[in-house]
Amino acid sequence: MAVVEVRANLESKMDQSISAFKNNLSKIRTGRANPALLDSVQVDYYGSMVPLSQVANLSLLDSRTVSVQPWERGMGAKIEKAIRDSDLGLNPSSMGDLIRVPMPVMSEERRKELTKLARSEGEGAKIAVRNIRRDSNESVKKLVKDKLASEDDQKRSEAEIQKITDKYISEIDRLVVAKEQDIMAV
């Protein structure tokens, strides 16, 4: 493995960390409705637990209401029960085949809890990025030890790896700030 491969591997892993972080942020509730909030809901489907998105179509009716359209007639009651039993604090209502899931207005205290959760997700993502940096630096040191790269290459690589790490950490900070503003908007 060459120094160039270490750098490519570093960026690939950091991109994956950012993607996972964005996915985790999308699951944190804001004042507006978002079908991704129901991704964690599991429904009993003929004896096995499956994600809600595999038994129904999720969409937005308006900015505060998610609609759930079951693909099978008998699933409505099970879907309603699964949403009600989830720890999301949602109260779905059935209108024929369509299930409406209104998003309740959040209190100021709940908004602050969610901003703390967003910050902790951000810290987790930063830790993942720093671990990737450490692994990459160790890979470069191993290349130098095995005489596949010079010490000058090592110094340049470590500086470049740090610059890339700083870029990804600032991206994480930017995403956290944006999410906090989204949560605190009434």
Plain-language structure description:
By secondary structure, this protein is α+β, with helices and mostly antiparallel strands. It has two domains: 103 residues, Orthogonal Bundle (Topoisomerase I, Chain A, domain 4); 68 residues, Gyrase A, domain 2 (2-Layer Sandwich), CATH 3.30.1360.40. It is 57% helix and 16% strand. The chain is built from four helices and six strands. The strands form two sheets. The chain has a four-stranded antiparallel β-sheet, with helices on one face. Strand 5 and strand 6 form a beta hairpin. Helix 1 packs antiparallel against helix 3, helix 1 runs parallel beside helix 4 and helix 3 packs antiparallel against helix 4. The chain is elongated, with a radius of gyration of 22 Å. The model has no long low-confidence stretch (mean pLDDT 88).
Question: How does the helix and strand content classify structurally?
Answer: alpha+beta
Question: What is the CATH-assigned architecture of the largest domain?
Answer: Orthogonal Bundle
Strand order of the largest sheet: 3-4-6-5
**What's the CATH class of the largest domain, please?**
Mainly Alpha
- Indicate the mean pLDDT: 88
Gross morphology is elongated
> What is the helix fraction of residues, given as a range?
55-70%
**CATH topology term of the largest domain:** Topoisomerase I, Chain A, domain 4
Low-confidence parts lasting 5 or more residues at pLDDT below 50? none
**Oligomeric state, counting identical vs distinct chains:** single chain
The N- and C-terminal alpha carbons lie at a distance of: 52 Å
**Into how many domains do the coordinates divide?**
2
Sequence of secondary-structure elements = HEEEEHEEHH
Any idea what the radius of gyration is? 22 Å
The number of distinct helices, counting runs of at least 4 residues, comes to: 4
DSSP E strands, number = 6
Strand content: 15-25%
Query: What is the CATH superfamily of the largest domain?
Result: Ribosome-recycling factor
Largest sheet: 4 strands, antiparallel
